[in-house]
Amino acid sequence: MTERRPDPVRDDGLHVFVPALMGVGMIVSGILVLADWLQKLLPSGRLRRRQQVSNGAKGVVVGIAEAAGYEIDGPDFRQREWRPRWNYLVSTLLFGLLGAAALAAGLLAFNDDAGLFYRNPWMVGLGVGAGSVLGLIALQLLFFGTVYRRSFRAAHVLVETTWFGGLKPPPTEPSEFARSLRLVPRGGKT
Amino acid sequence: MDYQFAQFLEGHGSVATDVGGKASSLDRLVADGFPVPRAAVITSRAYQSFVSEAGLEPFLKDLQHGPLPAADRIAAENSRVEAEFLRAPMAGELEDEILALVGDFLAEAPIAVRSSATAEDMVHASFAGQYETYLGIKTREEALVAVRKCWASLWSPQVRSYRRRESIDETDIAMAVIIQSMADATWAGVMFTRDPQGSALDMKVEAVPGLGDDLVSGRVTPHGFVIDRRTLAIRSRGEKTKLGFLEDLARLGLRIEHRAAAPQDIEWAMTRKGLRVLQARPITVSRPLAVHDDGFDTTPTSGDEYTPRGVAEMLPGVVSPLLWSINAPMLEDAFRSLFATIGVPGVGQGRRIVGRFRGRATLNLSVLREAATSIPGGSGAEVERQYLGHVLDPEAEQPIASGGPLARARAGVRNWRANRVLADEVDLIKQAVHGVAHLEIDLSPLPVQRLLRYRSRVRDLAWRIYATEVASSSAAAAAYRALEVQIGRWLGEEAGVEWAQRLTGGALAEASVGAGRVNLLRSIYQRHVADTPTLQAALVRGGTEPRERIEALGQSGVAFLDEVDHCVRAFGAQAVYAGRTWKEDMVGVWSQLGSFAKDVDRGATDNEDALAELIALLKASPRWRFKRVITGQLIDMRLRMLRRMVGEATLYLRCREESKSSLLVLGGVERKVIFEMADRLVASGHIVYSSDAELFSDGELEQMVQGAEPVFSQELERRRRAFNRARDAGPLPEVFQGDPDTVTPANVQTGPVMQGWAASPGVVRARARVLDSLEAGTELEPGEIIVAHSTDPSWTPLFLVAGGIVLEEGGPLSHAAIVAREFGLPAVLNVAEATHAIKTGEDLIVDGTGGEVRRVTISEETEAEGEDD
């Protein structure tokens, strides 16, 4: 008579193997779900890479044109642009709330006689400082959200050079990229 | 006297087959008014009559088919042949004519008797110095012996060897003999209108006092003069003798060259009556031509195995010297760069990976195997599977490199890092190439240095693309194989192969080489032709060049042609970087447009459907579901892995196809530079035709355009012959060591069923169409099965029309396999000698699932009809 091979599921006398296996599986798949979700939620990494790709491609074209004695007139593909208006308004709310929360937390900690930071001036300082910065950002965002594109030049510069502006998607089609470049004689760039 | 076997050379026109090459040239010189001493020719009919009457034919046949004598037997063999010709009886009528003719000349002066073979003074083979010439003959008897000896010289061992080397057919070869009055020369010599050893912008003259025979025989050292072709300034290289007629001689030489349209080797004499031309023939280089000696073929490394598979798609067919010198270094470097990336930079050092035999590109299979077995998990079998489509010896044990878990992890990280940037690199390349092609820089006003700098930058980008293409191919092969193996674990090995094909088939619809072209042409077709029956008819019936037919249709036709021409300009090269463009040869474009008119609407297959089908199949298994529950998978991680693997395989295949497409588009840009350089070389007199540029190496072209001396035109002829010979030699064996000519070709499968590799699933029954070139594809009727040796990206239009594909070559990731799967065409590849075994018009069943090609026999057909009844 041959001996039956042990089956980890049927012979799990301690009733540990199956739950452990399932537990590990659930944790791993949970992590994967989270990773997929995050990847979908954060497109800016891809956008930044696409910008770098387009800019790199432009560099190659410029090099070739220059070798033939020409220049290339075309956009810088690492641009930022105005985000959608609702984005500024929602962000105003978020930053405002965060600022208020920071201020309140600092004051509460200062006044909490049972707390660790009772009468510790650092807490007031931190609370006020963080609250003010977040508040100022919220104000700036509110300004952008209300005035939006009609804003003065400095605001445009701020949007185009800092994270107040979102990354501008480069051309998706190679033909579109090619059309955005113009061959000009050396010194003829506008 | 009316001569039956002779004619005077009076410039009335003579045919080389009657009077031989040399006499024909002399006759042309007379016709053109050049000063040629009086001459007549004993025609080739005299020789033929003599041979026939004397019964020399069996003797000559033996010489023709027999071996050449060893070096120490040449003199004896010469004497033997000469003795046969001297001994043979001559018909009285012929002898009388010859004696009468030479008597006529001898009445004035001594004569020269010169051979003039029907295979002589050809542009590519002058036979200079190979045949006999006798000078200063004073009697009729001497002349008769000289004529016989001239005839005999047609069969001297040296001449037979020369003919064999130059592949000249000996069947109808004959010898005419020139009888010429000896010029009373004060000086005589030879003149090369282009200096064979020095600058081709110079002429070279060698002269001796008196008759030139001492010079020709090499008995005296001649006075040498070099003359600038442009200014006719004489540079005597320390020569103290001054000859007053040199400038006139140079002018005379240039006029002869101009008439003959080729550099000339001229024998001349200065007489009291002025300059005389004794003979003129094209300059050739008389150096031996070995089988592989076209200046570019590779010397095989001893013990290494080579294969043309895989690389034949990048460099298809016989590659011209220019394209080889441009592409081979880039491809070699791409492989080296891949080796460095995967951590095996030292493999194959000192041995070439990319080789060339019979003008065809090959890969060093041994080096690739070594590279594969140097990385953990790699094996030579996988390399064979990737490049050949099958394992050469499935029974043999193939070592798989292990290297331990740490080495595997390190290799995995290296590959991941390399592959992570591939997609971005391909996107960058695509944009850059479109940007460069869009510039349309006018090259004609660019100074040479700027033109070369521009080309160098374009080439830099091409290097980058080649590296990306090779890396993508490697990544695609690995990802594709991993997918095959994984599905194979779940459903069995055969199912793994089939599902991997289906899952990746349609994903490349927009990416594969040629897809963009098809889409553009389809949109033009829809706008201009779809609703115009006359245009449709012109496209279908227009043959290879329906332009005239379409132009004749008036405004609508012209507008259509304008748009097609504009669009085709951006298509770039057809099959190989810097090679022939679609604009140069529009056969493929017309064929593609014609396929739309033939109502063949072949859409791409959808791999999403295939994935959904596979997932449903897997989920239907209770075992599959049980495993998911027992392992606590909130999401099915195996399906997630499957999707990821399919995604990776298609991503890398897309990368490979897109980099290849980009390379071809950029190839069109470099091609324009080549044309510009060639045009400049034509203008400067370096070359005669711009198409000759194909025969130069890249470096030669660059040096010449910078003003260096031209490559000697006879060297070009030699390369042209080597190129043609390589083309005639046919394809290379699948795998070979050393000289491919020694490999026995695969047996022709003559039975009703031929086995091959199942490349694209499905079964089709249709007529076979055996094609040896893209041009032949215009005969392809909708639904017919293409039977060919191999295909390259320029064949894509034919896939739109075909019903199935049978090829002698091709692996799982070859262009044919990918495009066939994309269009859902049943395809069987690697069918040995298919083009010889199958005839056009045969009824075939192509089973792309089982890898079989079956001839439909008459009995099967009757059976099928019986069942229908």
According to CATH, the homologous superfamily of the largest domain in chain B is ATP-grasp fold, A domain
Q: Approximately how much beta-strand content do the residues of chain A carry?
A: 5-15%
- Secondary-structure element series of chain A: HHEEHHHEHE
Q: How many domains of chain A, as an integer?
A: 3
Provide mean pLDDT of chain A, rounded: 85
Please give a structural write-up.
The complex is a heterodimer of chains A (190) and B (869). Chain A is mainly alpha-helical. Chain A has three domains: 1-42; 48-77 and 178-185, no CATH class; 80-167. Chain A has helices spanning 17-41, 44-67, 85-111, 121-147, 153-161, 174-179, and strands spanning 70-73, 80-81, 166-167, 182-185. In chain A, the strands form two sheets. Chain A has a two-stranded antiparallel sheet with strand order 1-4. Chain A has a two-stranded antiparallel ribbon with strand order 2-3. In chain A, helix 3 runs antiparallel to helix 4 (121-147). The radius of gyration of chain A is 28 Å and the shape is flat. The model of chain A has no long low-confidence stretch (mean pLDDT 85). With 869 residues, chain B is α+β, with helices and mostly antiparallel strands. Chain B has five domains: 1-182, Dna Ligase, domain 1 (2-Layer Sandwich); 183-288, ATP-grasp fold, B domain (D-amino Acid Aminotransferase, Chain A, domain 1, 2-Layer Sandwich), CATH 3.30.470.20; 300-416 and 728-740, no CATH class; 515-597, no CATH class; 753-868, Phosphohistidine domain (Glucose Oxidase, domain 1), CATH 3.50.30. Chain B has 30 helices and 23 strands. Chain B has an eight-stranded mixed β-sheet with strand order 16-23-22-18-19-20-21-17. Chain B has a six-stranded antiparallel β-sheet with strand order 9-8-7-6-10-11. A five-stranded antiparallel β-sheet of chain B has the order 1-2-5-3-4. In chain B, strand 19 (785-788), helix 27 and strand 20 form a beta-alpha-beta unit. In chain B, helix 18 crosses helix 21 (587-597). The termini of chain B are far apart. Classes of the chains: A mainly alpha (190), B alpha+beta (869). The A-B interface holds A 9, 18, 21-26, 28-30, 32-33, 49-50, 52-54, 56-58, 60-61, 63-65, 67-70, 171, 174-175, 177-179, 181, 183 and B 424, 427-441, 443, 446, 450-451, 453-454, 456-458, 460-461, 630-635, 637, 640.
